[in-house]
Amino acid sequence: MGEQPATLDEVRTWPALVSIAQAARALGVSTPTAYRLHRRDDFPVPVLRVAGRRRVRTADLVRYLEADGGASE
Questions:
Q1: pTM score > 0.70 for this model?
Q2: Of residues 15, 20, 45, 44, the one with CA closest to residue 31
Q3: Are 61 and 71 in contact (CB under 8 A)?
């Protein structure tokens, strides 16, 4: 089985931008599922292109998780 989902407190310590794979951990979904959601424009937070890579703002993840009741808190 994969890694445990990140807690809200842990996510708050992450750098300003993280990969989709790391964001997936915060959201409690697999990396392939996260990329599939992104391709369908269904990822729950904005995904940015930074230097040719897809990145997610940690602040957006924190807001989403707080609104969702801190799912894995």
A1: yes
A2: 20
A3: no
Fold of the domain spanning 8-67:
Arc Repressor Mutant, subunit A (1.10.10)
pLDDT tens-digit profile of 2-52?
A: 578 999 999 999 999 999 999 999 999 999 999 999 999 999 999 999 999
Q: Encode burial over 12-46: b for 16+ CB neighbours within 10 A, e otherwise.
A: eebeebbebebbbbbbebebeebbebbeeeebbbe
Domain ranges of the chain: 8-67
Structure tokens at 47: 């995904």
Structure tokens at 28: 């409690």
Give the amino acid at 11: V
